[in-house]
Design a protein that fits this description.
Helix content is about 80%, strand content about 0%. The protein has about 180 residues and is mainly alpha-helical. It has two domains: about 80 residues, Orthogonal Bundle (Rna Polymerase Sigma Factor, Chain: A), CATH 1.10.1740; about 70 residues, Arc Repressor Mutant, subunit A (Orthogonal Bundle). Belongs to the sigma-70 factor family. ECF subfamily.
């Protein structure tokens, strides 16, 4: 039989010819692929794919070892390029999701801050100032120096401010601040 290109058509290879070549070239192709992809299972999968292409090949293969090597390399490189694109795509999606969550977190935090400020604005001024300074890391001595409130009153003002804050907090709803 002759193809439309003038080359003789090749029927599928015979089973015994395939088996002989499979046993001869499988270790060579596998080893090459393992060095390319660095993974046992992937190298085995691609090796199988190479031999399936060989089995289904209708062209006359003059230098089988070279042909198998070239096909193996092409399949492996195609896989690696596809894997690289998949990883980039996943990273891009993950980045978008993280951006969405960070925007939502920021909105949520801003709402919390507004709620806390609203509650703090309802506290008496001396309690509010003492609470804010204490939660900003100031000691009783530093609060006394900054406000001229007697040192022995600062602890009581902070305690009363916390109690009032918690009552107002419960009244206002869950702000997830405590």
């Amino acid at each position: 039989m002759i193809s439309i290109f003038g080359f003789p058509k090749r029927k599928k290879i015979k089973e015994e010819e395939f088996q002989i070549n499979y046993e001869k070239y499988y270790p060579i192709v596998y080893k090459q692929l393992y060095y390319l992809v660095g993974n046992n299972e992937l190298a085995e999968d691609i090796t199988q794919e190479v031999f399936i292409k060989y089995y289904n090949s209708k062209e006359k293969i003059e230098f089988l070892g070279s042909w198998l090597s070239k096909v193996a390399t092409n399949i492996a490189l195609n896989y690696l390029r596809g894997e690289k694109r998949r990883i980039k795509r996943e990273e891009s999606i993950l980045e978008e999701v993280n951006n969405i969550f960070s925007i939502e977190d920021e909105i949520f935090r801003n709402e919390q801050i507004k709620g806390v400020r609203k509650i703090l604005s309802n506290l008496p001024e001396n309690q509010r100032i003492c609470l804010l300074l204490k939660f900003s890391g100031y000691s009783y001595e530093e609060i006394h120096k900054a406000t001229n409130i007697p040192k022995n009153s600062i602890g009581q003002l902070i305690a009363r401010g916390k109690q009032k804050f918690l009552k107002l907090y419960e009244k206002e709803g869950d702000l997830n601040v405590l």
